[in-house]
Design brief:
Blueprint (H helix, E strand, L loop, with lengths): L13 H19 L2 H26 L20 H9 L13 H12 L6 H27 L2 H13 L4 H4 L4 H16 L3 H14 L3 H12 L5 H10 L2 H14 L4 H4 L13 H6 L1
Length: about 280
C-alpha cells in the first residue's frame, strides 16, 4: 500500500511574514538604541516629579498662603492646564481661548469619548501627557542614536528628561505630545518615509505653532524629490493641522488669525522669529 503523503507545512502569508519581519526589526532597533536606558530615565523622571509635587502641595498647604488642592494631581494641572481642560470640555467658547492650539484639547476629548465620557478630564489630560512623555523619551533616544554615538544619545535623553523646563512635560500641557510627534516626524525623514513624516508634521502643527519648523524640514527634504508636484503635495500635507485650524477659525469667528490677535490679552505679542533672542543680546 502506498504511504500517505505527509501534510505540507503551513504556509505563512506574505503579509504575516512582513509583519513578523517588522516586529523583529523593531526589536533589533530598540536593543541597538538602548531602549531600557531611555525607559528607565522616563519612568524615574515621572516618579520623582510626582513625589516632588505631592511633597510641595503638602508643605504649602500648611503655610500662610494655604493651598487647597482638589487632589494630589493638582500640582500638574495649574496655569494654562486649566485652559486646555476647559477647551476640551467646552470647545472654544470665546475668542480668547483660541490662543491655545486644538491638538491637545482634541486628544483629551477623543479619549474621554472613548471611555464613554467617564472619568475626570484633568486625569485623562495628565494620562495622555505622561504616556506621550515616556514614548517621546524613547523616540528621542532612537533618533539621536542614529545621528550620534551611544553616550551622546544618552546625554541627550538625560538633558531632555531632566532639564528644569521638563516640568511642563509632566503637566497637563501639550509639550510632551508635541515632542513625541515632532521627533517621530524627524525619524521618518531620517528613514526617507516622506509621506509619514508629512502627516506627522501636519499633526504637530495642530499642537503648537512650532510645528511649522517640522513642516519646513519636510518641505526641504521633499525638494530633493524629482517630482515638483510630489514636493508641493508633501509640503501642503505637512501643514494640514494648522490649515484646518485656520479654516475652522474663519468659520467660527470670521477671523482666520484670531489666535494671533488675541495674544495681547495674555500680555504676549507675535513677533518675527528670533526677535526675542536678538533683543536679549
Amino acid at each position: 500500500a502506498a504511504t500517505p503523503a505527509a501534510d505540507p507545512e503551513p504556509r505563512i502569508s506574505r503579509r504575516h511574514a512582513h509583519r513578523a519581519g517588522a516586529f523583529r526589526s523593531l526589536g533589533r532597533t530598540l536593543e541597538r538604541v538602548d531602549a531600557s536606558f531611555a525607559l528607565s530615565v522616563a519612568v524615574s523622571r515621572l516618579v520623582v516629579g510626582i513625589l516632588i509635587s505631592h511633597v510641595a502641595l503638602t508643605i504649602f498647604a500648611r503655610g500662610p498662603q494655604a493651598v487647597r488642592p482638589a487632589s494630589w494631581l493638582s500640582g500638574f494641572s495649574t496655569w494654562d492646564s486649566g485652559w486646555y481642560v476647559g477647551i476640551a470640555n467646552t470647545w472654544y467658547p470665546f475668542r480668547r481661548s483660541t490662543v491655545f492650539f486644538p491638538g491637545y484639547p482634541a486628544a483629551i476629548r477623543l479619549v474621554h469619548m472613548a471611555f464613554g465620557n467617564h472619568g475626570s478630564l484633568t486625569t485623562l489630560a495628565l494620562g495622555i501627557g505622561w504616556v506621550a512623555f515616556v514614548a517621546s523619551v524613547l523616540v528621542v533616544q532612537v533618533l539621536t542614536r542614529q545621528l550620534c554615538s551611544r553616550n551622546v544619545a544618552r546625554l541627550a535623553v538625560l538633558l531632555y528628561a531632566w532639564s528644569p523646563a521638563s516640568v511642563f512635560l509632566l503637566a497637563a500641557y501639550p509639550e510632551s505630545c508635541f515632542v513625541l510627534i515632532s521627533a517621530a516626524a524627524l525619524l521618518c525623514l531620517r528613514r526617507n518615509r516622506l509621506l509619514a513624516a508629512a502627516l506627522l508634521a501636519g499633526l504637530s502643527t495642530a499642537f503648537s505653532p512650532l510645528g511649522i519648523c517640522v513642516a519646513v524640514a519636510v518641505g526641504i527634504s521633499a525638494l530633493t524629490s524629482r517630482s515638483i508636484w510630489r514636493a508641493l503635495t508633501l509640503s501642503a500635507v505637512s501643514i494640514w493641522g494648522i490649515t484646518a485650524w485656520i479654516v475652522w477659525l474663519n468659520s467660527r469667528f470670521h477671523d482666520p488669525f484670531v489666535f494671533m490677535t488675541e495674544q495681547s490679552t495674555f500680555n504676549r505679542h507675535t513677533a518675527p522669529p528670533f526677535s526675542g533672542l536678538v533683543g536679549a543680546l
